[in-house]
Amino acid sequence: MNPRHPLTILSLSAILLATAALAAALPPLPPPEATDQKTPVPPVITAPPNAAPSDAIVLFDGSASSLANWESTDRKNPSPRWTLEPATRAMVVAPGAGDLRTKAAFGDIQLHIEWRSPAIVKGKGQGRGNSGVFFMDLYELQVLDSYENPTYVNGQAGAIYKQYPPLVNASRPPGEWQTYDAVFIAPRFNADGTLATPARLTVFHNGVLVQHDMPLRGPTENRGLPRYVRHPAKLPLRLQNHGAGDLVAYRNIWVRELSFPPAPPIPDIPPPPYAPAPPPKKIKK
């Protein structure tokens, strides 16, 4: 087709006129400040390297006074009787001394915890450096020596026990310190006791993402399927004493209690699409 043909020129003119009419009907592009949010202003905290943030609750720092933040699940003797290891500022599972759980109760939290399986390897599978971190006394993040130690995958280190295996096995050799950094969101229940939203868990193992916002199916069960039963909004954090041969050590434990403000309102401006922004004005030289 000849671009200079009268019909072609008319068609192009019609398109240009339609485009201009459409642009005129669209709302103008809002200024940048129309979507600026001024409040609430996030609180200021300090976050020094290799230390707890200023708004953290330190649950264990190696001192006897911080061990007093815990109690044994042994009803006959609730005093915390795990062994303090001053050289590493750690506490070590003590056979027959029960699990340890915090005296304080928590709901939504960020957790930092460091753990170490025994350097001398004994046993295999689930019988090798076995312990667990229980959020709200109910939901287990598995602790296990999973360095060259095959077992069922939803029971290895970094697993949400019997529910989700980790994305990768980031385990270090036995005897080396390892870290979990986790964000736990507690379940919510309706007034009639039914589940509103499940618990969710995100975990970094030695700095590597192994669980991402996973919806928990219910409290941890070793046998059978889990199910939710309404419980308090806050419950203790618990560390498992799995058995005499699983002398796992823990240190540097802190949590941050989390609260989430409501979603900010959508700015009161027209939704897109918008009319094209005018070209910037040329600066006269």
Describe what this molecule looks like in 3D.
- The protein is mostly beta strands.
- The protein has one domain (57-257): Exo-inulinase, domain 1 (Jelly Rolls), CATH 2.60.120.560.
- Helices cover 8% and strands 25% of the residues.
- It contains two helices and 15 strands.
- Strands 1, 3, 4, 6, 9, 12, 13 and 15 form an eight-stranded antiparallel beta sheet that branches. It has a five-stranded antiparallel beta sheet with strand order 2-5-14-7-8, with no helix packed on it. A two-stranded antiparallel ribbon has the order 10-11.
- The protein is elongated and about 90 Å long.
- The protein starts with 5 loop residues before the first helix and ends in a 28-residue tail after the last strand.
Short description:
With 285 residues, the chain is mainly β. It has helices at 6-25, 64-67, and strands spanning 57-60, 70-72, 83-85, 90-92, 100-102, 109-116, 131-135, 139-143, 178-185, 188-189, 195-197, 200-205, 208-215, 238-239, 249-257. The protein has one domain (57-257): Jelly Rolls (Sandwich), CATH 2.60.120.
Key terms for this structure?
285 residues; mainly beta; Jelly Rolls; 8-stranded antiparallel β-sheet; 5-stranded antiparallel β-sheet; 2 helices; 15 strands; 8% helix; 25% strand
